[in-house]
Amino acid sequence: MLPSPPPGCCGPVPRRAFLADFGLGFTGLALSEMLARDGRVRAAELPAKDPAVEHAPPTGLALQPPRAKSVIWIFLSGGYSHVETFDPKPALNEHAGKTFDKTPFENPLHSPLHRARFRSVPAEEINVRDVYPSIYPMQVGWKKHGQSGIEVTDWWPHLAGCVDQLCFVRNMWTTDNDHAAENQIHTGRHRLDEPQPSLGSWATYGLGALNDNLPRFVVLGGPTRSDTRQSIDSYYLGPQFAGVPLALDPKNPLPFGQRPASQSAAEQLAEFQLIGQLNGLSAVEYPDDPDLRARIRAYELAYRMQAAVPEAVDLASETAATAAMYGLDNDATKLAGQRLLAARRLVERGVRFVQVFPSPYGVWDSHQKLKDNHTRLCGTVDKPVAGLIRDLDQRGLLDETVVVFCTEFGRTPGLEQRAGGVDGRDHHPNGFTIWMAGAGLKRGYVHGATDELGYHALGEGHYVTDLHATVLHLLGLESRTLEIPGRRRLDIDHGRVITDILA
Q1: Residue 6 has pLDDT above 60, yes or no
Q2: CA gap 181, 231 in Å, rounded
Q3: How far, in Å, CA of 223 to CA of 480, rounded?
């Protein structure tokens, strides 16, 4: 059955005309996306969306000229210690072993910020996290680096040489004190709330693709557990905007992404053409089925990716000097180096958002043996991350790429004493540090601070969605325009742009 003609139409719509209009409609969508890539479309020129229509990507939603084309989001799972990385606190050494109330500083446990920014799942009477009162000294030395004189600990010798390219935000905070915070820093929502799409999904939903032969949102090295899938998921935006995990084996970068050896290229082409015809017929019958549309796009993209993806993740074409810059010549740094080098290759080829997990799940979670753990782990990522910054810079890509380096929370200034602990720190959502680099950002700059003991983010601080709003702003997007009819987000979901760090 064909749809009823609109009011005022003089007769039924011929089937051939309907199918032609249907096809031209999709041609128009493709054209609008190509124009958006060239910066020819702006949000003000777009018609209002019909809530009854499946939400297609609002190509061209840029509200200001974008400073960046792509994002490389580096996430260290488990929670690195901010005070032993990028926010050293000499007061921890000076007052080591004392309780908070024996120092000349305000007891952070009595601060109203503690309750305002803390949302624990366990009952308060059994939750001891974040309230360890015995100060644990820093486990590493530190010094100032670069012309900017930014303090970095001695576990980061390579990255310390890049501080004049980096922009640190030392007053981040979040609310979940457990590892669901890994999802929270990517979605902005606490685990007790309704899940929301991840930042990578929002960015690609708002901007579309730069390369039709590659996924717009790629994930390298994760997520490694089903309960952290939220960190790359798109939820109600539709499956076409979810992150696509890729392996770094050029022979098999994507499960089921290679043509079977028993099938010729001509046979596969004929198969995909038939599938396309059948899907097209189904699309006429079920025009509002988002899963069907996503499936059609997936088939089309999978066919195109067969050549593009293996080439993009094939690191063998890189020079020996580039491989050494990323630490591919050392077993300790090879894994992180491969993933970060692949990230550079992907943004170079037009991938919008690359989310990189350079370390396995949860390994930075240093409840015990923090010194041993962080010494080893910093050694695995320091050189590769510094290599990425230098490589992007020398290729001119740092001027059009935003690099974000983050974790889910910091670690407690106090010694974790559960189970007789003597050498570790617990989870700490009340204040921690991330850094950014690249397009549209100040370089060699520190924004915000935690208190003398590294406990609370001072001032209003920045909830994780402030970071999201800043990244979207640099891409030319305004978070508050990225909403779906019937799915209105909370104000905190949108965050506030951290304007002080913008160049």
Answers
A1: no
A2: 10
A3: 28
